[in-house]
Design goal:
about 40% helix; about 240 residues; Rossmann fold
Length: about 240
């Protein structure tokens, strides 16, 4: 099945080189299947907590991607917070997309707390609460690798490709020392009229959102509103 614009962008941002990629909250497994098709990693993990959905997905995977030796994929019906990262020594890529920023904060925070000495790379695409998610990523000592702003079906999406570093990995990977911006940096660097249009409309939507909140809860929106008011688009 053809990927939509959002999943295509996620797929394009994932480099080869990971040993294990975890496609979490994977729904119908479209992104993970695309990763399998292009052999993005030796092992692709599909994770969701809904048993019937995962059984259907496993049946499809067995049909279109028959298990080999060694296997190239594995289906896990469990809470994302419980994925067994400790069973695999190398840096994993954990993809979480299609859920709200509040749940995403909870999942990312839980994984980082359970594996405090592991470098974990995340590819995140929240439905909302992007500002709050960024605040938590900053608290968790994550560093930005790449970020994108896209529009699909009249909805805006921020895609955050980040790495949670420990003290040891921060020394070993100095290229990942750039901290995450509370409002994003690469999002506002436009190279075409189309990108400028998307960025301008997205920024106006965010400003309107926090201005509305500030009328009833000024303290809740004050910092976010100030941060976004200082955003300027750059060519």
């Amino acid at each position: 099945m053809k990927l939509g614009h959002r999943l295509t962008q996620l797929n394009n941002m994932i480099p080869t080189g990971y040993t294990h990629i975890w496609d979490c909250c994977c729904d119908h497994g479209l992104l993970g299947a695309a990763l399998l098709a292009r052999q993005a990693a030796p092992m692709i993990h599909f994770v969701d907590i809904v048993p019937p959905l995962m059984q259907q997905l496993e049946n499809k995977l067995r049909r279109f991607y028959p298990l080999q030796c060694p296997p190239q994929w594995q289906v896990h019906c469990l809470d994302v917070a419980q994925i067994p990262l400790s069973d695999y020594p190398k840096t994993p890529l954990v993809i979480i997309a299609g859920v709200g920023g509040d749940l995403m904060i909870e999942l990312v925070n839980s994984l980082c707390q359970q594996h405090p000495h592991r470098q974990i790379d995340f590819l995140l695409c929240p439905v909302h609460h992007q500002y709050e998610l960024r605040q938590q990523l900053i608290t968790l000592n994550c560093r930005v690798i790449e970020e994108k702003l896209i529009e699909e079906n009249r909805r805006f999406y921020e895609i955050l490709y980040v790495s949670r570093l420990t003290e040891d990995t921060a020394i070993a990977t100095p290229q990942l020392r750039k901290p995450i911006s509370p409002v994003g940096e690469q999002l506002w660097q436009v190279t075409s009229d189309k990108q400028r249009d998307i960025a301008e409309r997205y920024l106006n939507k965010i400003l309107g959102h926090y201005q509305k909140i500030s009328r009833s809860s000024p303290q809740k929106a004050e910092q976010a509103l100030q941060d976004y008011q200082h955003v300027s688009l750059k060519a």
